[in-house]
Give the backbone structure.
Amino acid sequence: MGYPAIDQPAPAIEVSEWISGKPQGENGFSGKNVILEFWGTHCGPCIAAIPHLNELVATYGSKDTLFVSLTREEPHIIERFLEKRPIKGGVATDREGAMFDAYGIQSIPHTFLIDSQGQLRWHGHPTYFTAELLEEFLQTDNVPKVAEPTSSSETVPAINPDTLFFLKIDRNTSDRRRASLSISDEQFETEFYGHRVVNVIRWLLDRPLSRMRIEGKEPEELLDIELRSLHPLKAKAARERAVDVLCDIFGIEICRVVEQREGWTLTCSNPQLTDMSDLGGGSSMSTPNNQFTGSNITIDQLADYLESLMKCLFFNETHLAGKYDFVLPFETLDQTRRVLEEEYGIEVESAVREVEIVILRMTDAAIRAS
């Protein structure tokens, strides 16, 4: 079943239970513009979209324009999540999944714009539901065209998954180039469009380039690769299986050596952090507007991402085991160090450490672009 048709009546909004922000009055949604968001606490991209949607609610939410965030989870799970990650507007649960079915939801997050006459006017990934789009709609009743994503960070709903493991490899036949990664306690999902196989293997190995070395001429062909694993096949097993398949196809051998390398230690004697790990759910990392934004990430994930951004080694010696939120500038290392220390209590100092280096060795059987 697909999504409802644009400019046709949207399915009626019926929820199992309101968690917060229940619309006032007997008429509910009648005569109101409604922004309906399908999401989940387990979904990293959903968590990353919350600040954006909260900003829209703060600016445009009113008695005539309602925002509703709908998940399929139990109320106690949602309530615990909202204690640390507030969502503005209405939050409700659809435990039986009737609304998810009615709106043809196959992946989350997904946003729908319904006008005051009950007509569906727009739907898509929340990243593309911009303030400019909503502003023009509210002022003129016109929905402007927005650039459609060639790929988006979405998560297959965790309830009743259709598959346990899916890997697809195609030659890239378009000019699109994108990579996305979503990890939760129950699933692992990644998509690459227009990337070399070595770059994909590096991501799957969860290793920054500073801890890898390539020997031989790497295959230059651009690929489209999609990988999804759902419980009970966890992220680590999915990554390892995908790397095995790619190395076998492209004739790549992997070996590991230990070397002395210079880098930067992360230590923490007085943490100024809020541990989000009791909420569970996925992690999300992005770099909009020259700043790094990480939601629900470990210090190891932070260190790895800093290595990728700064092109130098970082060693996690904080002994912090939780998951945290970070917003960091990364134009210069000095900027990043200052914010880490002043806002999060994490000190960054130069050091020399033993480092495991992963070597990707291209064999004679490696496939190369013609």
Notes: The chain is about 25% helix and 30% strand.
